[in-house]
């Protein structure tokens, strides 16, 4: 299985570094149904040639991108000013990005967040982002309820930090949250039940939840209005399980087993505003070809 986005973001940060929600304001400042692509979809291209890759992404027709490449106070190796210029030169907006929140972002001796985590939020605001999104959970903080409660307090407090910076905090699910429980309750349910919805938004990844048994429509209906963002993804069976025993991998939309259009149509009616395409496996295509096909399909659905 390809390295997960959470691990990708988390490891990148470790290698280099060693406002309540206002729906009326959001409606006034951002168009509905924002359609973008998570740059993790083209991670190898971004690693080799960020500038050239962003140009190709824009030429494909994308107007919004979501990053998974902030570390060392830089975005994909560029300063805030330089990366902002690179985005502007290609007619791209970046209103969200992935930055992992776990135990290493908390300083037990001061009972506060690390300076690096505070800097991450400040830099997100400086480049013009609206959402700092943590991909997946720190599993070491999900082994008992006491640690988990502290972790969810970190979520809420990050939401407060983001609010002070004029942006928002959100959580993006991986697969772990759907096959692990505490005290008989699924981790994902606990996250939604333990976080203040005015401080912690949710970015539902409809693909990551599928293999361990999570179904997007179930959660959209169970927690109405909680999912302001979505990773749009389809899943297809692998020819053989990967090294972790996974039997599904992502694919071009409509080629797999997930009823993506049904989910997207429902989400559009129930408060989701950001629809971010993500594809992590490509079968016989290149990543850029795959996200181009994904975009065409989403546009055929009225985006």
Beta-strand fraction estimate: 15-25%
Q: Compute the CA-based radius of gyration.
A: 18 Å
In which order are the strands of the major sheet placed?
1-2-5-8-9-12-13-16
Mean pLDDT: 92
Output the CATH homologous superfamily. Divalent-metal-dependent TIM barrel enzymes
**Secondary structure: number of strands:** 16
- Going by CATH, the architecture would be Alpha-Beta Barrel
Query: Sheet bearing the most strands, described?
Result: 8 strands, parallel, barrel
Strand/helix succession: HHEHHEEEHEEEHEHEEEHEHEEEHEH
Distance between the ends: 31 Å
**What would you call the shape?**
globular
CATH topology: TIM Barrel
Uncertain runs are: 14-30
Tally the helices: what do you get?
A: 11
Structural class assignment: alpha/beta
What count of domains describes the coordinates? 1
The proportion of residues forming helix, as a percent range, comes to 25-40%
CATH class: Alpha Beta
Mind explaining what this structure looks like?
This protein has helices at 5-17, 23-29, 43-48, 50-60, 80-89, 115-127, 145-165, 187-194, 216-222, 260-269, 287-300; strands spanning 34-38, 64-67, 70-71, 74-75, 93-98, 106-107, 112-113, 131-135, 168-172, 181-182, 185-186, 200-205, 229-232, 234-237, 248-251, 274-277. It is α/β, with parallel strands linked by helices and 303 residues long. It has one domain: TIM Barrel (Alpha-Beta Barrel), CATH 3.20.20. The strands form five sheets. It has an eight-stranded parallel β-barrel, surrounded by four helices. A two-stranded antiparallel ribbon has the order 3-4. It has a two-stranded antiparallel ribbon with strand order 6-7. β12 (200-205), α9 and β13 form a beta-alpha-beta unit. The longest helix is centred in the middle third of the chain and has 21 residues, at 145-165. The protein is globular. Mean pLDDT is 92; it is low at 14-30.
């Amino acid at each position: 299985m390809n390295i997960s986005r959470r691990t990708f973001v988390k490891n990148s940060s470790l290698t280099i570094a060693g406002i309540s929600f206002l729906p009326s304001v959001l409606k006034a400042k951002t168009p509905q149904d924002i359609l973008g692509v998570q740059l993790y979809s083209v991670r190898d291209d971004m690693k080799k040639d960020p500038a050239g890759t962003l140009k190709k992404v824009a030429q494909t027709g994308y107007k919004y991108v979501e990053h998974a490449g902030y570390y060392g106070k830089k975005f994909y190796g560029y300063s805030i000013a330089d990366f902002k210029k690179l985005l502007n030169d290609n007619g791209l907006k970046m209103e969200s990005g992935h930055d992992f929140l776990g135990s290493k972002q908390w300083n037990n001796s001061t009972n506060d967040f690390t300076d690096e985590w505070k800097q991450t939020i400040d830099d997100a605001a400086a480049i013009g982002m609206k959402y700092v999104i943590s991909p997946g959970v720190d599993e070491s903080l999900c082994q008992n309820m006491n640690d988990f409660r502290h972790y969810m307090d970190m979520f809420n407090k990050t939401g407060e930090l983001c609010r002070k910076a004029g942006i928002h905090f959100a959580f993006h699910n991986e697969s772990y949250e759907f096959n692990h429980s505490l005290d008989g309750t699924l981790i994902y349910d606990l996250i939604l039940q333990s976080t203040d919805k005015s401080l912690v938004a949710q970015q539902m990844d409809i693909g990551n939840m599928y293999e361990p048994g999570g179904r997007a429509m179930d959660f959209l209906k169970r927690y109405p209005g909680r999912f302001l963002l979505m990773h749009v993804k389809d899943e297809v069976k692998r020819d053989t399980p990967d090294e972790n025993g996974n039997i599904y991998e992502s694919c071009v939309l409509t080629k797999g087993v997930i009823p993506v259009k049904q989910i997207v149509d429902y989400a559009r009616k129930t408060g989701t505003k950001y629809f971010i395409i993500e594809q992590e496996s490509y079968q016989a295509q290149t990543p850029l070809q795959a996200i181009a096909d994904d975009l065409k399909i989403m546009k055929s659905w009225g985006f």
